[in-house]
Amino acid sequence: GLGFFEYFQLAEDIGAEPLPILKCGMACQFNSAEVVPLDQLEPYIQDALDLIEFANGPQVSKWGRIRAEMGHPEPFNMKYIGIGNEQWGAQYFERYALFEKAIKAKYPEINIVSGVGPQPDDALFYSAVEALKKFSPQLVDEHYYRPPQWFRDNAARYDNYDRSKYKIFAGEYAAQSVATCSPDNKNNWDCALSEAAFMTGLERNADLVNMCSYAPLFAHVDGWQWTPDLIWYNNLTSYGTTNYQVQKLFSTNKGTHLLSILEAGKPLIGQEGLYASAVFDKTTNEIILKIVNTEAVSKTKNISIQTKKKIQAAAVKSVLKSADLNSMNTIEKPGEVVPVNQEFTIKGKNLTFTADPYSLTVLKIK
Questions:
Q1: Residue 105 — φ and ψ, nearest 5°?
Q2: How far apart are CA 359 and CA 339, in angstroms?
Q3: Which member of 17, 74, 86, 203 is catalytic?
Q4: What is the pLDDT of residues 89-110, one digit of tens each?
Q5: Residue 86 is among the residues annotated as catalytic for this protein
Q6: pLDDT tens for each residue of 28-49
């Protein structure tokens, strides 16, 4: 089992920010839909306050002392906490209000994550967006389990979002090859490539979309309850899916500053099947381009880099591709679809780039 202590340790070990999502006094509304009466909600609110004290409190506090006795005297410095997962409606928001009031009164520095239901664009979603106008969440957790085409069609989802309200946590997403909740969903290249196209939009709107995470994370090949999943394993080994390879390329090449990458003054959001985003990494002094080609033919583009800085001739190109959209990594063949690194030469500040069919390319330019 994975408890809060192990979860905080894991986040600390890998350099991640922990974000526990807590019960808000409501069971899953798809199942029993049980709710705790408002006048009996205090123990749930106290759980949230106790967890914050366990994560961040000094050793002289009740829960800080317990953390120290467990072997971690220093605080974990947790910054985020979520209230409710995929909840919706008036019952959720009247409970959320009590949590927000109590947490902000005692821990005003904690960033609170609110939900907007299980869908990204239905009536429940829009009513939740309207209800959130009465509150002040720092992040709103949006989920998308949709067909691959939806991800390609929605790469511009956040381009025109209202920046004045709150930030977005794309908390759960995964393209569904068959249908949401279908046991036949596959981690195929069609799904992963479509997610890559969508993620260029997340990166392009990084001022608004502060965090994102594919879901679910782990699944045992002989004991799972949901498909698709990011990492599959048996009792002896594990492998990263095609989706994992996409996530890895984005997460290890995220840069520090957003750049514009435009064609005819517009972002690449599906024109000729191409999607793109660009960043600058101040720590490595690199321009990093991510270019997704969702079509079955190669696409060649002239790229002009507008900068006063000198561009080095030697660049690195990482290409993740497959000619077959049904390709998958498996326990038997974990390396069926993996990135291949290649050297790439640039002359001056103009280059000709060819995006292979059905590919995600990461181009790193010094």
A1: -70, -35
A2: 10
A3: 86
A4: 999 999 999 999 999 999 999 9
A5: yes
A6: 998 888 999 999 999 999 999 9
